[in-house]
Write a structure and sequence with these properties.
Layout (H helix, E strand, L loop, with lengths): L9 E3 L10 H6 L2 H15 L4 E3 L6 H22 L1
Parallel strand pairs: 1-2
């Protein structure tokens, strides 16, 4: 998140609103690092991404949707070069 590069979240078996820093991560990290993770996850919640349910979803369809989304994100960047 700090670099400002394009980001395509893929939410697999989780809703964006459920993102949070796990307690284990906090215990193994400094307070500053845990805060960075929490801030990044909060920001990621607001980015439109792909959602996938591994129990009912089609992995091939997710692959196609991912490729399409990456092309939309990065092809315009290549034209600017």
């Amino acid at each position: 998140m700090e670099t400002g590069k394009p980001l395509l979240p893929i939410f697999c078996d989780i809703k964006p609103s459920e993102l949070r820093v796990g307690e284990r991560r906090v215990q193994r990290s400094s307070v500053e690092q845990a805060k960075k993770w929490a801030d990044a996850l909060e920001e990621a919640k607001g980015i439109t991404g792909l959602r996938f349910n591994s129990h009912t979803g089609n992995w091939s369809k997710l692959g196609r949707e991912t490729v399409q989304a990456v092309e939309m994100l990065f092809c315009p960047l290549r034209e600017d070069m």
